[in-house]
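B., you asked whether I could sanity-check this one before it goes into the benchmark set. Here's the sequence:
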Amino acid sequence: MNTPRHPPFQHRASLRRQSGIALVVALILLVIMTLVGLSAMRTVTLEEKMAAQTFDRSLSFQAAEAALREAEAVVEATVPTPAALAGCVAGICGSPNSSALERWADSSFTGWQNAAAVSNGPISITPQYIVEYLGATFPCMPGSPAAGTDCKRYRITARSNAGNDRAVVTLQSIFAAE
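And here's what the prediction gave me:
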């Protein structure tokens, strides 16, 4: 049985057409894998930054919350009654002026009181707070008409800043005394 043979020149021509194709395919695959690798590195870097910012925000929030609780404990222990529109002493301020910029929003305000530092590893944050006396004309038991209207209220503002362009958190609460 004879098998048909191609003339030698046809076999060599088909070999010449295929030479170098494997190299081109390999280079294209290498470029694609490099792009995928660079994209993965960029994604990991972005996710790491997001995780660090979430950590900073969480730590700043916890520090501000701790300062808020510390200020509430100070108010509960002393039940201060500063004069209306008085300045601030140790973070306790008189009634706010309704026509002026809020103290907590004024960057030139210097009456903040430092609270206990909050630490997590090498990061330590010293949050601050101010207590503003809102008056003693609030209902003692809202919703109960028979209750008196001579209870004191305080607006407590706490802030924390981890520094170096890290997360800044400001919290406020209205605290009822007596």
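One thing to flag: The chain has one domain: 10-177. Otherwise nothing jumped out at me.
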